[in-house]
Design brief:
Helix content: 40-55%
Order of helices and strands: HHHEEHHEEEHHHEEEHH
Largest sheet: 6 strands, antiparallel
Distance between the termini: 68 Å
Radius of gyration: 26 Å
Shape: elongated
């Protein structure tokens, strides 16, 4: 037997539904609405629309333009949107693409972020091959050597790059770039082409490629990379490049970026 109080919930649900429909009317194409316009759009009495707008305005979800009396979305929605953006876990969002990339290439795949003047691997999928290249989770490595971290350094502000260079560039292998001017040229080239290929810069016999992961503001927040021994990577450089590019694009799209990663050979 239905409770007598059940019908009382329906109007409340209808009101909540109407409020959501009202908020969804605001778009880039039409960011401002008047009461009469919304009444016609929602097929709703003007008095009902006015009450909803008054409630939303009181909570900061909409704001009224005093000049034309029309309404637009308020800062409260921006605040909530930022909560959503901050709540997007980079590792969780990236895992499916990292796993696929590792399967496609057969090599180790890393997700790396900047912390101070170091790079830190926060997620990885290792190659199943007996001879492989990889990194430890949570291990701090200098930013100026190796594909994952060198790419991240390339997108740091120049003053931060200068601080890292001033602290000293130490060779990990005979191929580590320790000359400041040569390193700056390499970083500029990485920014221009939007990816980083490195050969034996940290570990002898190891080759890596990395692409940037961008957020909703198109800021570089991480790098995704493929690492492997040179004798295997030489035969699949094009494949690793394209698969890594696609993975970085997909993860960036998940984070709200509209950046377009150019295919190899295309103008950047």
């Amino acid at each position: 037997m239905k409770s007598e109080s059940m019908p009382e919930k329906k109007p409340k649900l209808e009101t909540a539904h109407r409020m959501l429909l009202l908020l969804e009317c605001f778009t880039d194409a039409k960011p401002e609405w008047g009461v009469t316009e919304l009444s016609e759009e929602l097929d709703c009495y003007k008095s009902v629309v006015h009450r909803m707008l008054s409630t939303l305005e009181g909570r900061g979800y909409v704001t009224q333009n005093p000049a034309n009396k029309k309404y637009s979305l308020g800062l409260k929605l921006f605040e909530l949107g930022m909560v959503v953006a901050r709540g997007m876990n980079l590792r969780t969002l990236s895992k499916p693409e990292l796993k696929t990339l590792a399967e496609q290439t057969g090599e180790s795949v890393l997700l790396t972020v900047v912390d101070g003047h170091s790079g830190v691997c926060i997620e990885k999928f290792e190659s199943h091959e007996s001879i492989k290249s990889t990194s430890q989770l949570g291990k701090r490595v200098p930013l100026y050597g190796g594909a994952p971290t060198k790419l991240l350094m390339a997108f740091l502000p120049e003053p931060e790059q200068d601080e890292i260079i001033a602290a000293g560039l130490h060779a990990f292998s005979p191929f580590t770039e320790t000359d400041p001017d040569t390193l700056r040229e390499a970083l500029a080239q990485i920014r221009k082409q939007d990816y980083s290929w490195t050969f034996q810069e940290v570990d002898m016999g190891s080759v890596g490629i990395a692409f940037p992961v961008r957020n909703h503001e198109n800021q570089v927040v991480a790098s995704i990379s493929v690492l492997g021994p040179q004798f295997r990577m030489e035969d699949k450089m094009e494949k690793c490049h394209e698969c890594c590019r696609q993975a970085a694009q997909t993860i960036s799209l998940k984070l709200g970026s509209k950046w377009v990663y150019q295919a190899r050979g295309a103008e950047v």
